[in-house]
């Protein structure tokens, strides 16, 4: 068998994860721009390290020549959500892209079918087309979708599994199982006040967007040389900001928008 040129072999996996990172983050951005709750909290990607690929091949008795055909999580994407309900919303968003952006090969619901270790997560393996200089390559990629609590548990358990190298003491295993149940209880409890949390976040987001627009409108006055007006609005904004509710900020911004129209300031 020829020696593997790892740099060349892993390049399309890197491209796949880079492209998926951008696409999935754009789903998140779309929700935020529209001031609705994004089921996606965080997108992370990684290409498995060479030693980790070799360890997995060894553990699963995969011949070196079959590594790229049989290991399907060399390219990995992790999506972290706030709530369990959000995980299934993300799953649906991914299913909606099936056949358009990629092909879904397999789904594994380790939330409803918790692993004996206590591991919970939703896995989707997709086949993603990477267009390279020398043609198209189909790259399998494992998307793991989990809550922040599930992620916390999995990260700790993963490190301990690595530390004990398959010989984890029974009392640690039991502790981890108990922690997995406790952390899922937290997820379930949080889920019951999901609507209230989302509502609060929406108010914060709307306030942030309004403050951004106000400051931009004030800055525009500077750019067209209306320094006095700028100082006047700036002072008014600083005086009222601390106690202002959404309606007050909205009305204040409206005044600025009217002024911008009056001065024909190009707003983008
Ligand atoms: P890494 O370093 O995260 O990439 P398996 O034989 O079960 O490990 P398989 O059959 O390829 O793997 O698929 P599966 O079950 O979907 O698991 C793939 C990945 O899911 C693992 O990759 C882990 O990231 C995660 N995972 C699965 N089970 C567990 C678990 O019990 N604990 C934790 N912490 N993670 C788990 P790798 O290659 O093991 O590790």
Description:
With 268 residues, the chain is of the alpha+beta class. The chain folds into two domains: 6-192, 2-Layer Sandwich (Beta Polymerase, domain 2), CATH 3.30.460.10; 196-262, no CATH class. It is built from nine helices and five strands, in the order αβααβαβββααααα. Helix 7 (194-223) packs antiparallel against helix 8. The radius of gyration is 25 Å and the shape is globular. 22% of the residues are buried. Bound molecules: ligand 0O2. Ligand 0O2 is lined by residues 48, 52, 56, 73, 108, 115, 117, 119, 123, 154, 157-158. Ligand 0O2 binds at residues 48, 52, 56, 73, 108, 115, 117, 119, 123, 154, 157-158.
Largest sheet: 5 strands, mixed
The dominant shape is globular
The unreliable regions are: none
User: What percent strand?
Assistant: 15-25%
Strand order of the largest sheet: 1-2-5-4-3
If you consult CATH, what is the topology of the largest domain?
Beta Polymerase, domain 2
From the N-terminal CA to the C-terminal CA, the straight-line distance is 58 Å
Evaluate the radius of gyration. Answer: 25 Å
Q: Tell me the CATH architecture of the largest domain.
A: 2-Layer Sandwich
Element pattern in H and E: HEHHEHEEEHHHHH
The CATH superfamily of the largest domain is identified as Beta Polymerase, domain 2
CATH class term of the largest domain = Alpha Beta
The helix/strand class is: alpha+beta
